[in-house]
Amino acid sequence: MLGEVRRAACVAVGDELLAGDYPDSNSGAIALALSELGIVVERFVVLGDRKDDLERVFYDLCARYQLVVATGGIGPTLDDVTREAAAAAAGVPLERNEAVLASLRESYARRNRPMPESNERQAWFPRGAQVMANAIGTAPGFRVWIDGGTLCVLPGPPHEMKDMLRRELLPWLRSTCGQGPGIVRKTFYMLGLPESAFSDRAGAWMARGAVPLMGVTAHTGILKVTLLGKGESVEGAERLVSARAAEVRERFAEEIYSEDDPRPGAAVLRVLGERGLTLAVAESCTGGLVAELLTDVAGASRVFKSGWVTYANEAKTAALGVDAALIARCGAVSAEVAEAMALGARARCGADVAVSITGIAGPDGGSPEKPVGLVWFALATPSGVRSFEQRFPPVDRASIRRYAAHVALNLVRLHGR
């Protein structure tokens, strides 16, 4: 039994994580889920597929924390050694679970495929371990007790991990250690505000001792602002968070685009849809990214009418009717060309609103007058066309393109409000 102890650690296992081939996204997702139960994850550890290292870390962490959640290393290959390391740390042998083995064989039989011999490894567990079923993969998880702590092992693939976390581990934790103290989390998503400017406007709300606690993360122009309230009960924590949330909504009314959906494309489609407006997009340096962010949202066709990726100057002229002489005189990256692109897109499909983007994403192509990171935007509406200049820091090409796409969507969102 875990009792009332509320401290935990996460271990991500895999040579590919240490090599930088993939990020460890599992630990953060686990920490967020556990926080809803009042369990605070105090440590993340990333290890390669080495049995001795895993055994030592499992033992050490279980001696310090009553809950340790590990992901990865329970596949069918010989380099998947998490189960062996867990058994060694617990001081018990591995034993084959005949029910799991039968289930694996049945799974392959349903697909008219013979089960590879290597998959039998996935039916072996430390003696005394409790098995956690894998509903969407072949690697079951398990729970084993090590020196006063509980080691819970989940699969490495994020979609399998999240499913097992939701179906198996969280319900078991609720029944074992209860809900814990009241913890309430509230999230806001904002656009059009640098992180430093947000901090200045938030003021004392950002102090480490503030109640509720406020945190902010920034990524390519999007701010994710989180309020975390703790109390003796969920109701008490909810009161704390609700009061501050109301103040945040008032102070950042223009910048908040969502409180639940991080996709800026969804916000644009919502606000335009509420007003019955349609949208067209003309892109150059973003290469269709704005259209992608819009069409990632189901039902986008009710608002989004058409998009053009006019990368070459000739395409701007042929597809959107931008005067070749205008491009020659002002350059493709200019207010004049951005406005002509937006007007052309709006006229060609009859949309109520059109946004255009043309810029220099780098790493080459910049000049002292037009450096890498310079992007021009234009918004065409029934009342006319306006252009906007933005100079992003000369970071990597992908980031500049995503910054630009988010700015373009935000221009449309603000018009639709």
Can you walk me through this structure?
It is a single chain. This protein is an alpha/beta fold and 417 residues long. It has three domains: 7-177, Molybdenum Cofactor Biosythetic Enzyme, Chain A (3-Layer(aba) Sandwich); 182-258, Alpha-Beta Plaits, CATH 3.30.70.2860; 264-416, Maf protein (Alpha-Beta Complex). It contains 14 helices and 17 strands. It has helices at 15-18, 26-35, 51-64, 82-90, 98-110, 158-177, 195-202, 234-251, 264-275, 289-295, 313-320, 324-330, 335-349, 397-416; strands spanning 7-13, 40-47, 67-71, 94-96, 124-126, 130-132, 141-146, 149-154, 182-191, 213-219, 222-231, 256-258, 279-283, 304-309, 353-359, 374-381, 384-391. The protein has a six-stranded mixed sheet with strand order 2-1-3-8-7-6, with helices on both faces. Strands 14-13-15-16-17 form a five-stranded mixed sheet, sandwiched between helices. α2 (26-35) runs parallel beside α6 (158-177), α3 crosses α4 and α9 packs parallel to α14 (397-416). The longest helix has 20 residues, at 158-177. The two termini are 53 Å apart. The model has no long low-confidence stretch (mean pLDDT 94).
